[in-house]
Amino acid sequence: MKSKDLLSVADLSSDDLQRILDNALAMKRKGTEPLLAGQTLAMIFEKPSLRTRVSFDVAMYQLGGHAIYLAGGEVGLGQREPMKDMALVLSRYADLIMARTFAHRTVESLARCATVPVINGLSDREHPCQAISDLLTIYERKGKPKGLTLAYIGDGNNVAASLLLACALIGMHFKVASPRGYEIQDEIMGVARRIAVATATQVVLAESPHVAVEGADVVYTDVWTSMGQENESEKRRRDFAGYQVTLELLAQAEPDAILMHPMPVHHGEEFAEGLIDCPQSVLIDQAENRLHAQKAILVEMAR
Known about the structure:
- The chain is α/β, with parallel strands linked by helices and 303 residues long.
- It has 2 domains: 9-127 and 290-301, Rossmann fold (3-Layer(aba) Sandwich); 129-286, Aspartate/ornithine carbamoyltransferase (Rossmann fold), CATH 3.40.50.
- It has helices spanning 14-30, 51-62, 72-75, 83-93, 104-113, 128-142, 158-170, 186-199, 209-213, 233-239, 247-250, 283-301, and strands at residues 40-45, 66-71, 96-100, 118-122, 149-153, 173-177, 203-206, 218-221, 258-260.
- The strands form 2 sheets. A 5-stranded parallel sheet has the order 7-6-5-8-9. Strands 2-1-3-4 form a 4-stranded parallel sheet, sandwiched between helices.
- Helix 5 links the parallel strand 3 (96-100) and strand 4 (118-122).
- Helix 1 crosses helix 12.
């Protein structure tokens, strides 16, 4: 790996990402050995979590290790004591650190100060673990992702950013439709385009969901209003009108296209009511694969 830490999908090479996916699939199919016996993962949460917390905790247990949950208020993350002091002490207790933070600069500061690997469990900039587990789901359902097309509909948020980078690394074409003002960050887009040149991958920007979805192998969406944006919810509902994923929109993709969402779902907003139960939905498989991807990520980071 390019770094001791996994803060961004761009910290991985194409070979790194493929190795993690192969290992995750192998552990899911064949079972998990105690590869991290005696090791400890410190989990820092500024934001509440279901899938991230449980999948990392269970992953460490199945790998023979131990996970410790630390609420943001307990740690302080630079408020109760300097970040450097906290990170250095925690590095003496734990072999790995996972942090789910509001600001990406927080997890960056933690990684700079810690002497053990730091994993970004989510920040406002990226959600690399989600993107890796999403590719695992695509890998299972479609075989090798290279050459397939993923259409992302909605907010160009942290999930969209990490998905774009992951698709570029693995050789999967990426089409995105977002309302004006909600596009993926230019910096992320620039990194993805540079990667895409090396992997012969297409990155297509579109305002129309219909243009993005046409011929796609995977249709992906996420919430219009993320945690911490609740005061913008009414404005976002207006701005995202026309970006709801429906059966009619899904019908414009390939007949065997799969439907994905990182969950939790706001039914009736980005996702039409009842769509989670349609035959093309793989949302629950996708959520399960957070566990298997997390195991492979932990093993990779502990190397």
